[in-house]
Structures are given as structure tokens and as C-alpha cells.
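JOB MANIFEST
job_type = single_chain_structure
chain_count = 1
residues = 402
[input]
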Amino acid sequence: MSARLREVPWAALEGLASTLEPALARILSGAAADTELDRLLRANRHFSAHQRRVTAEALFGVGLWRRRLRAHAGPTASPLQLLACLARDLGGDATAPQRLGVDLPPSQPLTDWRDRTSLPDWLAEALEAAVGTADAPTLADALNTPGPITVRANTARTTRDALATRLAAEDRPTTPGRWSPDALHLTIRPANLTATQPWREGLFELQDEGSQLLAALVPEGDTLLDLCAGAGGKTLALAARLPTATLHATDVDHARVERLRLRASRAGASVRLHHALPPDLRVDHVLIDAPCSELGALRRGPDLRWRLDPATFSQWPPIQRALLEQARAHLEPGGTLTYATCTLRPEENEHVVAAFLERHPDFTRERPALPDELLDADGALRLFPHRHGTDGFFAVRLRQRR
């Protein structure tokens, strides 16, 4: 983290204080940093490359590190003081306070890991519940580190090695993923992958390695259903892995279903898309990538932790339980339900699964054929950024007895 921030051209802050201050204030009041950045850069198209970069680092950095910066600069520090503290204490630019026209107290050592990693108290407690008190700071560090840009080779049209060669030829070097046989991690940022010929040919999809593993949990079968298809990453992964299966997909967001239609066409994937499922549809296997609190993907949105309201998390378990019931209604006898979330909360993971199994004793857990490092004692997939290099995921496969 500090190594990257020390490479930022902080000198480009000169003269930007009055431009940055309103956007920083809005971010600290709950606005999304990416929205504020887009608005600010559109209004200042004359910015140099260094000014654009320092603006992005300023907005996202203050958005993410606000708790740590207030521990240094004081609880009532102004937005510009927090920015000066970011540049001074994390970016190594001792002259930043003068450039921004503010004063700062001397930097103090931090003794509380929640201050050091800039976590809301509720999130620190959630991490401790997920991985234990000793491991929580390491997980927090991982959530503060941007995740890699990862692609999934579309094996219906190419191989991972062949795709790596094609991307390297267009100056996008990669390294193989650790867990998914189809994953490649880009080693440069930004990669601008949609400008490449392999993208135009539908040879890959952008997809976190953990997300790729969720699709791998679904067994082979003649008929499959992706019940919460969303943007379609896992749908297309299923289509590539099981090209002879009849694959159905749906989502409550009809606009996303239509976008998936375009993505499937580009990938050459055969998917039967539904805005509403036929009541008599029955399939061998169902994937439920349920909507959730998304705590496992926090490294993808650095300031998101400060915009989440944990009081809203209670909405998810009833929705998740209802989705499992809906999936069961479309399942052939003896089939499987693969339930997944990208959150770390047991209330949305183990508790939802336990309630379903109590209600339906004809279902049992089934241990998938994945490395033991990815599975817990009950056979559930558990992925964490600090252990596996993926986003955080939970998934379990349930099979119905005939």
C-alpha cells in the first residue's frame, strides 16, 4: 500500500486545493468516490496526466483511509487536512501540508489495528467473527489491497496458454491463476483489455478467480439453471465448461439479462435466457449466487465500507432463504443446489443453509472435488483474499436424495 502511494506525483497537488475540497467533503459525507472522481475529471478536462492521477489517489485515498488519517490528524480534521495527512504519512511527501495550505500535528504511531487498517468498528467485528481475532488484521490488510485484474479463458474457443500468448503479443502479460485452471492474472494496470483482439473474438471474460470456482462447484448434468445470473460471469463459465448441457439463466434485473444476451453472443455461448422462469421448468442442477452484503468484495470498492449500513444487512437472509426455496421448486429429484454468496457473514451463509436443511431433511451437503485448502470441515467452499488471493466467497453444494 505505502509503496504504491509513495509513487504518486503528490507535487501535482499544487493549486488543486479549492478544486478537490468540495469533492472530498461529499465523499466524507457518503458520496461514492468513483462518482465524484468521474464528475471532477469531466469538469477539468485540461488536467495533466499527473493531475488526473493525483486527483484519483486523493479521492479514493481519503475515502478509504479516513479512520487512519483522523487517528493521525485528529477527529475534527478538515478534508484538506486529511488529504495532506494521506500524502505526508502514507505517500511520504512532507511538503503536502504547505501545498494545500493546512497545518498538521506531528504523526503519531498507531496502536489499534482498526485505526491502522481504517475499518469501521462493525466491519472489524465481522472480520473477527469470520477468521478469528488473530487473523482479522491480516484479512483487513488484504481488503485494503486492490485485487488483481483476472480473466477467464473461454475454453469453448481457446486454451489458457493460447490466450496468454495472444494477450502477451498485445503487451498484456499475465500469470496463471493458482486455483482455477482457466484463470489468468494481468501483471500490468490498467490493462484496457476491451481494446484487445482476443476480447473482440470472445476469447475471455473478466472474472475473479474465486467467482470462477463457484461455477466449478456445479456438477455435470444435462440441464442447468443459473437462478441469479446477474452480469453473467458464472453463466458463461458454466456454458464454457459444460457446452453440451442445456443452460437456463434468469435474474430479477431484466436489463442485466439483456446485457447477458449480448455477452453470450460474443462468447459463442448457448444460454436460454428468461425474464420469468416457466413454472414447469425442471433441471438437474441449480446455481444460486445470492444477493448479499458483499463484504467479500470490499477490495473492489475501497470506500464502500464507509457507505454500507450494517442495519440493512437483515434484509438479505429472508431473500436468500426464498431463493433456495425457488431453486428447489425447479429441481429434478436427485439434483443439486449450489448456494453461494460473496459475503463473510455467517447469518447469510451457514445460518441460511442450516435453516434450509432443517426444513428439507431430504437434502444433504456434498463435498466437491476441490483442493482441501479451499474447503472447510463440512465441505463448504471458503475463500478469503489473504489466504487464497481471491475475493471472499462462501459456497455449499446440497444434493437431494431420490
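[summary]
The chain has three domains: 2-110, 150-206, 209-400.
The first strand starts at residue 150 and ends at 153.
exit_status = 0
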